Structure formats: C-alpha cells, structure tokens
Amino acid sequence: MTPALTPIVLVWLGAWTLNIALTSLDLPFSRVLTPIIFGATILLLWEMACRIFEIPPVILPPPSRIAVSFTQNTSILWTDFVQTILKGALTGWMIGATAAIVTAVAIDRSPFLQRGLLPIGNFVAALPIVGIAPILVMWFGFDWQSKAAVVVVMVFFPILVNMVAGLAATDAMQRDQMATWAAPYWQSLWKLRMPAAMPFLFNGLKITSTLALIGAIVAEFFGSPTKGMGFRISTAVGRLDLPLVWAEILVAAIAGSLFYGIVALIEKKVTFWHPSQRK
Amino acid sequence: MRHLVISAAALASMVTAAHAADDLTLQLKWVTQAQFAGYYVARDKGFYDEEDLNVTIKPGGPDIAPTQVLAGGGADVTVEWMPAALAAREKGLPLVNIAQPYKSSGMMLTCLKESGISDPQTDFAGKTLGVWFAGNEYPFLSWMNTLGLSTEGGEDGVTVLKQGFNVDPLLQKQAACISTMTYNEYGQILDAGLTPDDLVTFKYEDQGVATLEDGLYTLEQNLDDPEMVDKLARFVRASMKGWKYAEEHPEEAAEIVLDNDETGAQTIEHQTRMMSEVAKLTAGSDGTLDEADYQRTVETLLAGGSDPVISKEPEGAWTHAITDKALN
C-alpha cells in the first residue's frame, strides 16, 4: 500500500463509521442523511484520487472541474437537453408507448393478431440499436425525428409485452361478473381490465424510461445536427474536453432519474389500490 | 535439408530473442487501411526488425480518440491530424510533431452538381454540409471562418450535419456537400454509381486552407529521454522506408494492409485504389516537417473568427530533432 493511499482510506473509513453509527442510532433523519453521506464520500474520494495521483484530466477529470464545466456551459447543456431528451427521447417514448398500448388491445381482441404480431414484436426487440440507428437516420433525416424513431423501436416491445400480460391479469370470476351486468367488450375493458393492467403497464413504462434516454443519445452518434447530448459527448471526446463530456453525463443522469421518478409518481396515483402501494 | 532450414530459423529467432528488441506502440488515427500502409509495410517487410524495434500497431476507429490513448499511456506515438494535435496541445496535452510523412492534404468537400454550387465564395450560404467530427471538424471550421460563413445555419450561414462514416447523406441528397478524402470516401461515392460529372469537388489544398494530416506525434517528455529519442528516430527511419516502399509497390502494400486487417472489412480493389491515392500525398515528403506547411496550418487555424480552433500561436509543437537524427 502506497503512502499516498493513506488519506483516501482514512476518509473512506471515517465516512463508513459515521454511516454505521447513524443507521444503528436510527435517528429520524438518518434515512435521508445516510445516502447523502455515501454519495458525498464517493465524490470526495474521486476528487482526492485525482489530485493525489495527478490523474490527467484527459483520462478522468475531478468532480470540481466537472462542476465548473457544468456551470460554465449551462446554455449548451440546456440546448442539448431539449434536443435529445425533450424532442428525441420523450416524443419517441410517447409515440412508442401509445402504439404499444393500442397494439396490445388489438392483440387482446383477436387471437389471429396475437399469433402474428407478437413474434414480429419479438423480432424488432432483438434488433441491435447500432444496426437500426444508421438506417433510421437515412429514412428520417439527421434531426431529432430519427432519434425519436430509434426510441420508438426500442420502447415498443417491452411496453407491449407488459400490457398484453396486464390485460390478461383479471380472473374469470371478475370477467363473468361484468358479463352478468351485460357489459359489452369496450365497457368491461375500460372499467375492469384497463385498471387491472395498470401495474403491468407502469412496469413497462418505468423500464423504458431509461431505455429511451440511452436510445436517443446513442442514435446521435450516427449522424446529427450540431446539437444534442450524443453529438456533444462524441465530439467533446475528440476535442479532449472531458469535463464537458462528464457534465453531459451528469445531465443524462439527472434527466433519467427525474423521468423515472415522474413515471413512478404517476403510477402511485393511478394504482393506489394495488397492494404494492400500501404503506 | 528442411531440418537445417528450420533449425537455422529457430537459431535466428533465438538470437533476436537473446537481445530483445525495443518495444514501441503506434496508435493509428483510424481503422486498418492503406492510409497507414507505410507502417504495416515497415513491420511486415522487416524494416522495424532491422532497426531492432518491436512495433505494435493499434488500429483506431470511430470511438477512439488517438490523443486520449497517448495521454493515457496506451501508445508511444500516434498518427494524428495537426489541427487536432494543436488543439489538444492547447488543452494541456503536450503533443509534439516528430515527423510528417504526408506532404499534402487529401481532404475535400464533394458536392452534387445539381445543388448549384460552383464557387465556395458565393454558393455555400444557406446550404447543408456534412462534416466529420471527433477532431476532424477543425479544418472545415477554419475554412468556413475564412469564407466568413457562420456554421449555425440560416440564410447567410451553412447548416452543418454531423456526418457518419459513410457517404449516404450525399446519395440521399440530405446534404449538398459532404466531407471526403481523396483516397477513401470519394471512391465510395463513385462506387455508389455517381460519376465525376455529377460532382463538384473542392480540395482544401486548392482553397489554400489545407492543414497537415497524418503526422507522427509523441508526448513532449519523451523528447527529454535520449534513449527514447534514439528509439523514435529508428522508428521514423524505418517507417519512412516503409512509406517509400509502399509508394513504389502499391499492389503489394495493399496486400500487406489486407493481411493486417483483422476485421475483414476491406477489399483488395478498395485498398489498391486507396494506396495509389495515398502515394500522391506522401510523395514529396521524406518525413521532415516543412516549416512553411506548419505555418500555413497554424495560420489557417488561427483564422477562426468567433470560435478559433487554437487561440494563440503554439510553441514547441514540432521538432526536427527526430527526423534529423533519422535521416542524416
């Protein structure tokens, strides 16, 4: 063990001890404080390692430099966020989700479609993004439309499978009850089976919220206008502006967490009756 | 007799093993292709062995920034374009040009004739142009700056597309012009069925905005180490020998490149054509950097208007120490 490692290990052990103490005391705020201390420790160790071992910023910039880059480039980061997340990922995710829900209902209505569409959906899900992205860029142009198209392809299948499973989630007794009340297909779908499918649907929506981000960013590597997170990440590496690359990664992480969080919040409101939501 | 030959070969290999050759790693700018034929020829023809070097050649690719590999200690020497190298130098990575096997630039902007572009001075405004990024955008940005065109789009500027590594945007008419290299993409456009009559090309050389391409760069600290300097000089000498051999034997050089292509993506026709085009660019250089070419490159880069590639005249960005030692 090199002597240079000593302060790093000391800080780490100190933070660890602090967290152990906090959790064992079980104070009212320790549930919040413990993860914050953990995260802060990671950043602190990263900063220390960069300085002590003089890691060139081209390889790994310290968090302080990333923070500076983040604050200096807010306008660039905002433009890229709008281009990639709001236009590319969100649009694609919404179109993909809508298409998947409609397809799921169609599959539910007709066994014929179930046998035909599911295998095709399966096939599309197996397509590698690096294979379809250049083709979709060729079809839909260089702007965000092609990124949205990539996202549609990526999110369609996971949502479809979840929704199909969700529509099958009611049991025969419940369906017979609806039939006894002479409810037609659409009414029983709307009043009984759709609500029952919600936990499944939201499972699919949560999974694909992160997929959509990845798809939109990676698709930009294959041709883009001169804005967007994927564009910036790939070009800033070429310019050795690694702090900017990490700032973009930070934006992606924040956006991904927010996106997931919002979907989870809506789920809480919609599926309040579900056992998993009980406090 | 055969036993004798084998044991003689074994003996030879033992002799070289007994006194180990110096290791050196070269990071290429791009994938294995005739653009780097000189280095593969030097290795396969034994020119590096003659100089007592054991050279590892690492191919690059779309996700590899050669300067970053050098910074991380993954290579001793890298093949890089001067604009990217000077920009990296300004970013705090002390790259130094130690040799310049390419005399001229192979970069062009290739336009569809039907787009109505005949004069860069007047016809680019309002058009969409395809550009490579990842360090290759610098020459283009400098050129647009000298033309006084904004790259933010609009009526008076040009709209820039980040071009992938193919010529589709031109074939699909998504862009009026795309970036091409004389030895690579231009041929791909012709392969796709367009004829030279359908196209208008603007060579950066002819526009007076050419920047030096495919030079050899190393980190400054290597030049303070006499042993390393000696190793680099031997490397440059053998590499230039490889280049001159490749210029004279384009077919054989293309074969050697193909043998070294682990991806299996290259074809002999493509590589032979590339080699004959590359030979035109390496002709006229013995490896020594021409100061006038360097000055022109720097001036082109400094000509940036609002967003110059480099903000001040670089110092110590090149040296003749290695080539003088290698070639005299």
Description:
The complex is a heterodimer of chains A (279) and B (328). Helix content of chain A is 80%, strand content 1%. With 279 residues, chain A is an all-alpha fold. In chain A, α4 packs antiparallel against α5 and α4 runs parallel beside α7. The mean pLDDT of chain A is 87. By secondary structure, chain B is an alpha/beta fold. Chain B folds into two domains: 219 residues, 3-Layer(aba) Sandwich (D-Maltodextrin-Binding Protein, domain 2), CATH 3.40.190; 101 residues, Periplasmic binding protein-like II (D-Maltodextrin-Binding Protein, domain 2). In chain B, 42% of the residues lie in helices and 15% in strands. Chain B has 14 helices and ten strands. Chain B has a five-stranded mixed sheet, with helices on both faces. In chain B, α2 packs across α11, α10 packs across α11 and α10 packs across α12. Chain B is globular, with a radius of gyration of 21 Å. At the A-B interface, α6, β1 and α10 of A face α4, α5 and β7 of B.
Structural class of chain A: mainly alpha
Kindly report the CATH topology of the largest domain in chain B: D-Maltodextrin-Binding Protein, domain 2
Largest sheet of chain B: 5 strands, mixed
CATH class wording of the largest domain in chain B: Alpha Beta
Portion of residues within helices of chain B: 40-55%
- Average pLDDT metric of chain A: 87
Largest beta-sheet details of chain A: none
Distance between the termini of chain B: 42 Å
Number of strands of chain A: 1
Rounded Rg of chain A: 24 Å
Q: For this entry, what is the oligomeric state of its chains?
A: heterodimer
Number of helices of chain B: 14
Q: How would you classify the helix and strand content of chain B by structural class? A: alpha/beta
Organism (chain B): Paracoccus seriniphilus
InterPro entries (chain B): NMT1/THI5, SsuA/THI5
Pfam families (chain B): NMT1
Keywords (chain B): Iron, Metal-binding, Pyridoxal phosphate, Signal, Thiamine biosynthesis, Transferase
